Amino acid sequence: MRRRRARRGLAAVEMALLLPLFVSLLVFPLFLGRVFWHYTAIERAAQDAARYLSRVPLGDMNNPARAPAAAAVAGQIVAAELAELSPGSIPYGLTTLCDGQICIGVVTPSTVTVNIQLYLEDTSFSWLTWQPLPLVVEASYPYIGR
């Protein structure tokens, strides 16, 4: 009878020692899935904004008054697509470039690029990530507007 009680105690100690390992094996894939979900959403937003900029009519891209407005519309596309990531608490950086420079409508670009930088702060697993995780996506398309 005494051996049986000792084994019960041993099972409880083993469970107490292995439980953190099992929980961490469950938490890490959940965190990694969240990172990939955010990266995919950022990548899709950058591609959609760059695709829009690549199809803006030539008259708008050569006009110094309308080219920044087209870049602003690309920014609105990004904002709308990144709104699903969280209730708006994640700030991001957005850069729209025409041939490596800000789109100001002086020359016709050969490529348009959208760059998004986002820092993923994880409130659920803050003990796992001490600092925000930087996610950077860049999408480039050849300019085909006519």
TrEMBL record:
Domain TadE-like: 9-51
Top-level taxonomic group: Bacteria
Taxonomic source organism: Duganella guangzhouensis
Stored InterPro entries: TadE-like_dom
Pfam families xref list: TadE
Protein name: TadE-like domain-containing protein
